[in-house]
Amino acid sequence: MNSTRLFPRPDPALLVLTSLADGPKHGYALMKDIEAFSHVSMGPGTVFGCLARLEERGLVRALEAEDRRHPYELTATGLAVLHEQLDELGRVTATSRARLRLARPARPNGGRASG
After folding, report:
1. Beta bridge partners of 60
2. What is the dihedral of CA 31, 35, 40, 42, to 10 degrees?
3. What is the gyration radius of the CA atoms in the chain, in angstroms?
4. Domain presence at residue 83
5. CB within 8 A of 46, min separation 6: which ones?
6. Segments of 36-101 assigned E as strands
C-alpha cells in the first residue's frame, strides 16, 4: 500500500457499476476491466459478493449463463445510481481542483520563512 494514500480505494460497488456501464460482463471480465481502468485488483470473492449485494438492491441483474460464465448487466436503477454517485464525486473533485488553483504555493524550506 502506498504510504502517502490518505483516502481508501474506490468503493467496489462503484467500480463494478462503472465496468457494467459499457455492457454486460461476467465476473472474470469485470475483474480484468476494473483492473485496467482503475488499477485496483479485486478478487473473485469481492466481485461476486459485490454483485450479490447490487443484485439484491436491484442495481444489476444476472443474465442467462453462457457456458459456465454468468454475465451481469446494469439495470435502469443501477444506471441512475451510478449517475448520482458520479455527480457527487464530480462536485467534490471540481471544488477541490478549483480551491487548489487558488491556494498559495508552498514556501520553500518546508514552509519556514527564510531569513
Report:
1. 74
2. 10
3. 19
4. yes
5. 12
6. 60-62, 72-74
Give the type of residue at 53: R
Say which DSSP state 67 is in.
T
Task: Identify the CA nearest to 37 among candidates 8, 17, 59, 54.
Answer: 17
Contact 10, 19 (CB under 8 A): no
Total number of domains constituting the chain: 1
pLDDT, tens digit only, all 115 positions of the chain: 456 777 777 899 999 999 999 999 999 999 999 999 999 999 999 999 999 999 999 999 999 998 888 999 999 999 999 999 999 999 999 999 999 988 866 656 655 554 4
pTM for the full predicted model: 0.80
CA atoms of 18 and 78, how far apart (whole Å): 10
Residue 7 lies in a domain: no
Q: Tell me, what CATH number does 40's domain have?
A: 1.10.10.10
